Amino acid sequence: MLHVGVIGATGYAGSQLVALLANHPLVEITYLASHSYAGKRFSDIYPSLFSSCDLLLEEEDIEEASKRCSVLFLALPHAMASKLVTPAILERCIIIDLGADYRLSDASVYESWYKTTHFSKDLLDQAVYGLCELKREQIAKANLIANPGCYTTTSTLTLAPLIAKQLVDPTSLIIDAASGVSGAGRSEKIDSLFCECNESYKAYGVTNHRHTPEIEQELGLLNQAPLMVQFTPHLVPMNRGILATCYANLKEGVGEEDIAKAYQEFYADESFVRLLGQTLPETRFVRNTNTCAIGWKVDKRTNRVIAIGAIDNLIKGAAGQAVQNMNIRCNLGEATGLPSTVASPL
Predict the structure, then answer these.
(1) Which of 69, 132, 150, 292 is catalytic?
(2) Which residue numbers in the chain have pLDDT < 50?
């Protein structure tokens, strides 16, 4: 059994991660930390996991955790992981960071968008961006894995075949994405209160959402040249899920058959990507799964492709992808312990 731990175990992403790990047949949770709830049992905070995970929550101590765990997950706000991770810790255990600190390869870009100092720039060269379907070989060798952002996962997977196969104009990319309220985290915020977000739909982070440079970094690598996207996120009054609607101008001569072939070839062996073709995905199609569903339409009138992707932001967009990264890195079987189909079609 692989010994694993989670620092930041009681946030939405952290608690989803604990739930997945508690049901993973090849791991044993040996360390859970939560500054807010240290001294309580995990099941005291989340009674739905009573008897599944009754482990005592401890104060955050990455030095101690790295001695007790082979894999340690960090589910912390940005600017915290870069203060904690050291070369010595990476020699003792594998770190999978669900935050943003190691996602961007250029520290100056990170500091510009996140308005904070990066405290371990020397480790960025060791970090591997953990978008499993695109970086599997690198993940298998890494001791520092940067779990991607939820919007980035959806947007990048949805657009990747179109960019990699050079079917669209990379200067024309527009992404409108909508997320459930759990994407804002579990901390108290006025904008996340029921009365503030229920029966409403709004754009936020317009022109400055922090997942923008992450999307541009990963699509730029597929494009083999830097690119920019127009990315606008929205908040939807539902608990979980992301739907990304992506627009791109088609290159001359590209048609529906070329697009279908590109998606089918690019994702031929991917168990967590479900290609729906002309059927457009909905968030309920992937709720509580580690799957990304993708569909597309061609607008012949405007010569654009509209590609739509859906994920569960807490699973494929966070905790599930973190487990998928662990499975790849530790050779546990990539799909082990991860749900790929919904429990109910409704």
Answers:
(1) 150
(2) none
